[in-house]
């Protein structure tokens, strides 16, 4: 067995039906600055709990863990764990308001992705 066959890699264009498609496909991959960042982003968004938390924070910025837990019908401990992961990625920021800690979305790319999913903002109470 050849080295390339054993590694699952083939030489560029080997066996290709359309070398131009191969070139275009490789260019698409090369055009992404840091594919690892996108893999991590999709991994975090792939968890239903984290996605639901992000949707809630998008609609209700400045929400506290207790209110998030109530909205999601989860325990505050479970919500806090998911929030910690989102904070570690820099997607969510926490702010202290007296004894209460509030959370809001703080990542423009994720914010835009939520809009693509159909997420909307709450109407301004003054409208």
Uncertain parts: 1-8
Q: Calculate the mean pLDDT score and round it.
A: 84
Q: What is the radius of gyration?
A: 21 Å
Strand content: 5-15%
The secondary-structure class comes to mainly alpha
Fold and architecture overview:
There is one protein chain. By secondary structure, the protein is mainly alpha-helical. The chain has 7 helices and 3 strands. The chain has helices spanning 3-7, 19-30, 35-45, 48-59, 65-72, 76-88, 108-116; strands at residues 63-64, 92-97, 100-105. The chain has a 3-stranded antiparallel sheet. Mean pLDDT is 84; it is low at 1-8.
Any descriptors?
127 residues; mainly alpha; 7 helices; 55% helix; three-stranded antiparallel β-sheet
Question: Gist?
Answer:
The protein is mainly alpha-helical and about 130 residues long. It has helices at about 5, 20-30, 35-45, 50-60, 65-70, 75-90, 110-115; strands at about 65, 90-95, 100-105.
